[in-house]
Amino acid sequence: MKSFQTERQFSYKKFFYKCGIFLAAVAIIVYFLPREGQFNYQFDINKPWKYGLLQASFDFPIYKGEDEVQREQDSIMRSYHPYFQLSETMGERIISQFKEDYNRKLRQIIPDPTYPHYIEQKLKEIYRKGIMPVEQLARLHKDSILSIQIVYQNTSILQSISEIYSTKRAYEALVNSDTVHFSKTLLQRCNLNNYLTVNLIYDANKSETAKKDLLSGVSFAKGFVMNGQKIIDRGEIINQQTYNILKSLQREWDKRNETTTEKRLTLFGQILFVSILIGCFMIYLALFRRDYYDKKGSLSILFFLIIFFPVISSLMISHPFMSVYIVPFTMLPMIVRIFLDSRTAFMAHILSILLCSICLRTPHEFILLQTIAGMASIYSLRELSQRSQLLRSALIVVVAYSVLYFALDLIHVNDVSQLNTNIYINFIINGILLLFTYPLLFILEKTFGFTSNVTLVELSNINNKLMREMSEVAPGTFNHSLQVANLCAAAANRIEANSQLVRTGAMYHDIGKMLNPAFFTENQSGVNPHDQLSYKQSAQIVISHVTDGVKLAEKNNLPEVIKDFIRTHHGKGLTKYFYISYQNEHPDEEVDKEAFRYPGPNPFTKEQAIMMMADSVEAASRSLPEYTEESISNLVDKIIDSQVQDGNFKECPITFKDIATVKSVFKEKLKTMYHTRISYPELKK
């Protein structure tokens, strides 16, 4: 019951660990995704459309052009009549003032009794038609207003502008009389402008209401585009109708992005979309690569790369300064393929480009191009051991981009002159940036604890410091390591294991013998120091070459995978020579096996299992009395079958078929290594 509870608690920990990764990935990606869709298309009338197929993603009206709307508004505004309030008392008050002034002082200037009657009638006529400021009357003429509505005693009268007086015109009407012959100079002395006051007041409320009523009859749209409807395709010429549709889409796009509801819906959609994709990838890992959840480095580099490229794409879309096609998206599958496996590389690449596509304006074309380029990169860089391989892969990726885009261009254009050639410059820049994968590998190795084939090739160089020192201090061990490395590489190639990894691991598996080289038979020259020691002491010295090797590896900063070969090449096996010899000397004693046991652990990868088999077989083959096909075959079968029976390979994913293949390879190689050479004859005298 206790073990069941422990297992259940462990499962909960793994569940919460996965949830944490999921939430962190979704939160980071969604945070950088643009909330406001941007209409970044550039187009002009009578020019070809240089982007891919454009379809309406929502319903929107086709708005009329500004000139067309302005013409319609100008036409309908000809029937617009602004409203003015006519003061009912202003004229009467002014006329009363005039009569009073005449009787008091103006009679002395013009004693003619017809004068006040004439002025009174003229003022009544002027105030009945209305007086407005000169500036306002000029504005009405400028706006081509021909008539106005005069509100008087709750009635509205339409009156021509030509009948309306300004203060200047009213004064001229008073002094320039044709019916009554008064001296103009005499009239001017009467200061008649004192009796001319504005009595037409602009009614802003009624006028604006009337204007809105008129303009409401003008339609700003002359059609409708439905969701999913094709607007334009690559290479098509933008005519007036299409131009209006594109302008309408841009206007509607900007309008939709201004609403808070639209932004909330966009955010929710982004969270849902990203969550589904990240969830699908985590399901893939759970089904096919469950061991990655236990390897923190593998999981970290996967999600780092998956998050990195959508973030870069979002930043480039939000701050457009260059095309998104210069971003080397194929760097992701390359790195994942080098460090992990090709299937996960492809899945991670597809996930990444789908996440990037939701902020792009032509997602279908982007997904198609990146998918094919990603497949080309995975195929062209299955193993990276030389810089020239990366250059070749970059060239293949650029060619894949270019050929596929050229094919799409040919499908959508009607004339060769319409082909878009600028995009190929972006593909070339993409290929150049892809070359930075090589130095980036070193950073990722140190950050996430991986070891690439490039590093393994560098480590397997026999001229490096540690290998050169071993060849000088322990030449026998050095030669043994080279032979084991050759056996391991040949076997690994046959069972589809990592040959470069196992070769490098084999070259370093016995570096611990450098501290006490004379205690190992391959380095002895007649004198055996073990003759002076007990079997237990000898066993401890031999066993110590494993722990010493690990310490030496740490001192020289060797990768963890190489240290694993040092730890596992003997597993938890016994130093059988000393154990059996001790047991023979003490037949009645119960021997403690732990004093003769290697610290382990047993191999837990296919490569480590090959290493253990090759190490034992190569060492034992040196003690054969004769090298025949039968003796070599029996030796290989005996040693490897013994290791299988001891359970040394229970913890690694190697099959019986693989083991049989490894045996066959070892037998072939050992026959070649120990074949009998012919003796050359001597010249007879």
From TrEMBL:
Keywords: Membrane, Transmembrane, Transmembrane helix. It comes from the Bacteria. The chain crosses the membrane at residues 15-33, 265-287, 299-317, 324-340, 390-411, 423-444. Residues 477-620 form the HD domain. InterPro entries: HD/PDEase_dom, HD_domain, HDIG_dom, Metal-dep_PHydrolase_7TM_extra, Metal-dep_PHydrolase_7TM_intra, PgpH_phosphodiesterase. SUPFAM superfamilies: HD-domain/PDEase-like. Gene3D superfamilies: Hypothetical protein af1432 (1.10.3210.10). NCBIfam families: HDIG. PANTHER family: CYCLIC-DI-AMP PHOSPHODIESTERASE PGPH. This is HDIG domain-containing protein.
